[in-house]
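Figure 3 (text version): structure tokens given as input.
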């Protein structure tokens, strides 16, 4: 099961850098950066709008890898979920 994520940010001279962080440790991003939690829902990750900032590519890669790992193939037919 994949852990819930939040969007955190680092303040830059001109805008922000947005990161993904585990909800259990919202002050540390998946890439290791120290972040401040935001109210931005994770479903808005990567959406370019009125926000002056950039999205951390390392956090995005880590989140995608975790999602792939959470969806693993059953080891045997007996481990397959019932439908």
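Below: residues designed for each position.
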């Amino acid at each position: 099961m994949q852990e819930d994520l939040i969007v955190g940010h680092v303040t830059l001279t001109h805008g922000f850098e947005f990161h993904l962080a585990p909800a259990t440790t919202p002050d540390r991003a998946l890439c290791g950066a120290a972040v401040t939690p935001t109210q931005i829902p994770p479903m808005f990750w990567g959406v370019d709008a009125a926000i002056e900032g950039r999205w951390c590519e390392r956090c995005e890669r880590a989140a995608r890898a975790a999602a792939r790992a959470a969806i693993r193939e059953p080891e045997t037919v007996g481990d397959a979920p019932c439908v």
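The chain has a mean pLDDT of 85.
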